[in-house]
Amino acid sequence: MPRRWYHDQGMMMASVADSVSLTLFPFIVSVVMTALQFLRVSLLSFVTACVAVGCIGCGRSTAPSGDGGANSGSGGSRAAVAVQLNWFPESEHGGVYQAKSDGTYDKAELNVEIRPGGRATPIGPELELERCQFAFANADDVVLFRQQGMDVVAVLAALQDHPRCILVRADSGVNEFKDLVGKTFQRQNGRAYVEFMRSKGLLEGVNEVPYHGSVASLIADPNIVVQAYSFAEPLLAQQQGVDVRTLMVSDLGFNPYSSVLVTTGKLIREQPELVRSFVTATRQGWQNYLESPERGNEAILAANDHGMTAEALAFGAEQMKPLAMPNGMSPTEVGQMSAQRWQTLVNQMAELGLVDPKTVTPESCFTNEFLSGE
Fold first, then answer.
1. Residue 39: its pLDDT value, please?
2. Which residues does UniProt assign to the signal peptide (predicted)?
């Protein structure tokens, strides 16, 4: 309010004070001062609130933020997208690193933030809380998320065959799964593949301990076997002077899609064009990575501070090709999924007691809608 207003009000109150007994003067002065203070505080609060609202409006940006918000913007501004990895950056995430480093996302007008994961990255909650728009997972993770009530949907599966394996030293005496008896198995407890192995009796007599995220224990002790991905840890072990062999879990009949790009049903419903744009660009990133992974690997190496090497990434990219394109698949088919594969997975996990088939259906787990690029 104008300063003059305060002055006029003070003069009026002073006139009233002159007309009453001097004994009331202190009381009147107190009332006047209280009133003026209240008005000043109210005015200050109002101005402060207006400034705060203005700052919030001015502070919006199309750049990725910590909460992963997406803004499509206008006038050619790029849409902000955050993608959460399910592990430390490795070859299994090559498609997004390739698309970011070779300009594929830029051409699609996408401002993409890739967030490294770790040993216990909460993919489902991160998506549900809208802290990111997309994430990486395995197909069995998607089934579990939906069983838990999370609306997570697979939109692209980079790897048709799962790279999960049990890594053993060549001098361990282990040549097949039945030879694991008496060994110490480092694994992530609760994983569906572990329960599948248990259901086949392959973990009887095996000492199960937590997985520590590296091959260090196996390097030191031939009686230790570790969970691994066939295109990563084997070379890391060999680079440290230890010959190894792999026992592929997919050979047992448990073979969920891997390097699966997931999002939420809500984002699909509310921003289908954003989903289509990101899926199309990411698929192109995977096709480029599988053909010539050098730029993607450089970006992965720069983002990984957990002992990854350029040689291991080159090895991984080469080893991934038959997993991404098995049985003569062409690059144009990369990412496709089938209802039959999802049905098999749901059935297997139901038999293991991990999900209720009445709660989780194959159709709710995935969509190929955005792979057409139309």
1. 37
2. none
Cα–Cα distance measured from residue 254 to residue 237, given in angstroms and rounded to the nearest whole number: 25
User: Is 170 in the same domain as 240?
Assistant: yes
Q: What 3 state SS string does 91-147 have?
A: HHHHHHHHHHHCCHHHHCCEEEEEECCCCCCCHHHHHHCCCCCEEEECHHHHHHHHH
Angle at 103 between CA 102 and CA 108, to 5 degrees: 140
The vertex-333 CA angle with 330 and 336, nearest 5°, equals 145
DSSP state of 84: E
At 33 the pLDDT is 40
What is the tally of structural domains in the chain?
3
In a shared domain, residues 168 and 153: no
Residue 119, domain extent: 79-161+256-371
Task: Give start and end residues of each alpha helix (H) in the chain.
Answer: 3-18, 25-58, 94-101, 104-107, 123-128, 139-147, 192-199, 216-220, 233-239, 265-270, 272-291, 294-303, 310-324, 339-351, 362-365
Are residues 242 and 271 located together in one domain of the fold? no
Q: How confident is the model at residue 45 (pLDDT cuts 50, 70, 90)?
A: very low
Which residues make Cβ contacts (< 8 Å) with residue 267, sequence separation at least 6? 133, 274, 275
CATH number for the domain that contains residue 98 = 3.40.190.10
Phi, psi angle pair for 237, to nearest 5°: -70, -45
Q: In what order do the strands lie in the sheet with 207-210?
A: 207-210, 184-187, 224-229, 164-169, 244-248
Both tokens of 241, joined, read: 């002077």
Stretch 282-307: mean pLDDT: 97
